[in-house]
Amino acid sequence: MWNDNLLITGKEQTRKELLPGPSRYASSVARDRVLHPLKINRKQLNYNNVIIKLTVAGLAVVAVIFSPGLSFAQQHPWQNSHLRSEERAKDLISGLTLEEKVSLLFDQSPAIPRLGIKKFNWWSEALHGLANNDNVTVFPEPIGMAASFNDSLAYEVFNATSDEVRAKYHEAIRNGKENRRFLSLSVWTPNINIFRDPRWGRGQETYGEDPYLTSRMGIAVVKGLQGPADARYRKLLACAKHFAVHSGPEWSRHTLNLFQVKPRDLHETYLPAFKSLVMDADVRQVMCAYQRLDDEPCCGNNRLLQTILRQDWGFKHIVVSDCGAITDFYTSHKVSSDATHAAAKGVLAGTDVECVWEGYAYKNLPDAVSRGLINEEEIDKSLLRVLTGRFELGDMDQDDLVPWAGIPMSVVNNPQHREIALQMARESMTLLQNKNEALPLQRSAKKIAVIGPNADNDPMLWGNYNGKPVRTINILDGIRSKMPGNSVLYDKACDLVENKVTQSFFTHCSLTDKKGFKATYWNNRNMEGGSVITEQITHPLKLTTAGQHEFASGVQLENFSALYETEFVAPATEEIIFKCGATGSMKIYVNGTLITSTNNWRTLLSRFPFKVEKDKKYKIEIQYAQLNNWQADLEFDFGREVDIDFDGLISKLKGIETVVFVGGLSTLLEGEEMPVSYPGFKGGDRTDIQLPEVQRNCLKALKAAGKQVIFINCSGSAIGLVHETQSCDAILQAWYGGESGGQAVADVLFGDYNPSGKLPVTFYKDSTQLADFEDYSMKGRTYRFMSDPLFQFGFGLSYTRFLVGNATISKAEVGREESIGMFIPVSNTGKRNGTEIIQVYVRKVGDSDGPLKTLRGFKRVPVAAGKTVTAMITIPSSAFEFFDEVKGKMAVMPGDYELLYGTSSADKDLKKAGVRIR
């Protein structure tokens, strides 16, 4: 262990600088006479830059040397890369002060120079590619990946993602950049909450409503991110979130108390995916959620974090808090009196790393120790897990020992990764309706029209928690690539939500006789000192640093501010509309009065009315500042709102028979805790699941005009499409398809790819089929507990037809630990090659309180036209696990079960076989 007795040697006024490398402590002063043995507290010595100054009998001593022949790099076990990570962590902990220990529990852990410990950030995101970084591969949103029912391809997606994270991280470090938030080796992915209600804005981040599908996909994600289980170092540390019973609503998540969740719902629906990732994928992190479960905040919940997670499942790794969740203990939930008590409660429950927006509660842990609320040994338990994780990454070792550190930048968005992104986007495409074989479209010289708010919309395809791709193929681009010449007419037609369009007044502005806005930029966040550049902007503001773009020449990508000024003379007395949004700090003044102020970590467009008087002059001023490590975005326009003229649109479409309408939602409407105030939307969630009215009206107008309407619905959640089944000839659910989403859509539209996607969520008819949003009972929710939706879970059409034959079962009666083999013939009776996804569901006979059916197996089965293939699916004993009310836990109980197999969860699409468990 650590040796407290060091020999101090030196010469008068001698200074010895330590050299890099293993022999940096072999000092020439070793031959000097020993002046004085000195005992130094190991917690006070700066071992990284060892320069100690003291005076003994007037002699200035400035060098330290250890026992002859022993280099510092080999002295302490925590520096020995051959030891187990946990051993190294234990040894390092023994040399830390309490304050240093506590700082290492922060999500932004500071460096400890005296020990050579680097700064470390725990918060990065890799939801579908490295998030909050530029020039990366952006894969489809997870809900779209789930529609592929292809966990093998999901593994490829996240193996590619982890390559890009490692390459970008080490390139940044080599270029002298610090380990910052959103560029780290700890990624808080995947989100494996159950998408139990389509109104939840963050459901797009999940793998759908089914525990088994979520488990299969989640395991693939973790293995792709963390690398081979037998590797010496973890590629990344993945994180299963949010533990537990967390799936909306966004607006009440900091105060919500869930105290009526039935044990059966908890164990059969909300916990299985977490259990699978802990026990089958060895995930290294679990994130606890914001809300309370049975009166205890999830990040301070002993039942969740101690009894279930650690005792029952044997989880040995790191628990991280959702950002600000510990602070919520005393600011929102009111279960703690102050930050000190909240910090003690969090650590005692087992939350190891605290994430905050500002102000760590955990910084009060030394005070909590002094007051007897917690002892240092409890803090050491958390720190042991935290430091073990860092050692497992190779964070404490030289890069040449860590193979992952050698991944080159050339892998980032390389052709292979682009192809994986395209293939996953193709496999996510889910055909919901195809009347009279309206699809695939025929290539011809005839014109088609592509209209709608999502047709020419790149950011929509990126989803949320996203990076910025090198290039994006949007849906309009994809369709144009399939058609000759100028045979595609494009018109936006309408907004996603608003029933009006804005006639911009931007060009009516001027300042000192110069049109537009005067823009002034500073390379600091406070508009201080001399400006960098002043220029005139004559078009609506749409500025971003994404892709390493400067707001203006010479303006930094970070740490800058801007002032935009103009004067506007109102042409009439009327109400005008301001539309704006920003990632960063934005304030808008009119005639010196503040009319709006935002401080956001993402761009959320908002609108607000403002009354003006004819011929009156209005001075408009926009102040902007980039914040923290976030990229900078700014959008601004203003003008007069007018009604949408669908008659004018129909006139433009004269002579065109086929119209592709690309609509749905976007992450400007659904997402995490968003200040969105449109009708039908609240806080990032929805209050009405129907397609927004303006889009419904546009589709009706197209139908009334006699057009063949192909509807491409882009969304991260289920939409109530009852009206659209009447007004549209075909409906393709395209999700948020990533950087190549537009190409995937076009490949399906024109028959270059035969769609095979299946719904990972139930598409309800309308909101009347939904229970109260805050009611977490599964009764009446998802395919497992309701049977009358518009489109069933597991449903999706093809351009060919499949016939599922009678299955052969290996055994009709088995013991409680035996598996069953199912052999299911699948015939392609159509004229195109295609892939069917065979699904197997289990139902316990006589279980009146249990699910109608629950997915327990699936397999993608490619079948050539006119051929038959036998799908072999193994049903393990765990497939028959259900909650045992008597024992209070999951168990395989003897009795009769039904195996339901087919092409969707709808009863009409399933065949039945019986099996008995002894």
Describe the overall structure:
The chain folds into 5 domains: 5-75, no CATH class; 85-130 and 137-411, Alpha-Beta Barrel (TIM Barrel); 429-499 and 645-785, Glycoside hydrolase family 3 C-terminal domain (Rossmann fold); 501-642, Galactose-binding domain-like (Jelly Rolls, Sandwich), CATH 2.60.120; 802-917, Immunoglobulins (Immunoglobulin-like, Sandwich). Helix content is 21%, strand content 26%. The protein has 20 helices and 46 strands. Strand 34 (708-714), helix 18 and strand 35 form a beta-alpha-beta unit. Helix 4 (151-174) runs parallel beside helix 5 and helix 4 (151-174) packs antiparallel against helix 13 (415-428). The longest helix has 24 residues, at 151-174. The chain starts with a strand and ends with a strand. The model is unreliable at 1-73 (pLDDT under 50). Belongs to the glycosyl hydrolase 3 family.
